[in-house]
Amino acid sequence: MSLSGFVPDLSWIPFWLPYSVDIGLVLALSYALLLIIGEGERRSLWMVRGFIILMLATVASKKIGLPLLGFLLEKLVLGAAVAMAVIFQSQFRRFLEQIGKGEIFQLFQVSQRTSSQPDSTTDRIVEAVKELSQNRTGALMLLETTDTLEEEEFVSPGVPLNAEVSKELLQTIFQTSTMLHDGAVVIRGSRIIAAAVILPLSERTASRQLGTRHRAAMGITERVDQCLCIVVSEETGSISLAEQGSLNRPLTSSKLKELLQDKFASKVEGDAVGLSRKLRSQGRIFLERILRLSSSMTEKK
Description:
Number of domains: 2
Number of helices: 8
Strand content: 5-15%
Structural class: alpha+beta
Number of strands: 7
CATH superfamily of the largest domain: DNA integrity scanning protein, DisA, N-terminal domain
CATH architecture of the largest domain: 3-Layer(aba) Sandwich
CATH topology of the largest domain: YojJ-like (1
Order of helices and strands: HHHHHEEHEEHEEEH
CATH class of the largest domain: Alpha Beta
Radius of gyration: 25 Å
């Protein structure tokens, strides 16, 4: 008996099952992208969310019969996909490598690395500050705690880096033989966003013992509440931490670590873990509602 013309009977499959599987796979892929691309950077998360919203709007416009709007949104999605592939090329490379190696389920374990990442980031910052202080190498580090700082807050935005925080990189940047040592580094989450950033100086009268770095730390924290600024004095090697225009000095490396864990690491860790939990809960609720709706439609039919 020839099977060339055999067509399997799939009528036993509920009509809602393919749609549920489709939606579930889209949610899983979106969740993995959010974890991989958005770890540590709030602005990256907004970009990925905007891309997902564009895709949903494209599907919705076609479903309700708006072909022109659907055509326009489809082109926007295509352009946004190309732009994101360029912006997040390293993250996409890692994403494709894990898929190629068959490590699909490990994509969803990024949240565990993210939750432990802020503490190690704090340790690397403190270790770098400790050695810079011992060598009396001047340094200025701006740490974002909640909202993303805009370039308008700076006198000069400096040189973009977008590199992982490391003790060696921070020490290298502030060596006087480099072109990036004059200014501040901006740290967002676990990444160094820029170096040689010129910060606004405080207009308040300060002690003569305080140099330009201390006045810059006070100036930016006066203008922006959602940040901390670490200063290492080039003359004395003393460590200071600026917050809301006030300097906490002198500090030991252990005291600095304690303050950063309270004011910086906990916020970054809270954002990462909170995002992961929120995505999981919302995805689960969404799928439950779809399955419940599909079941009720099947019963009515």
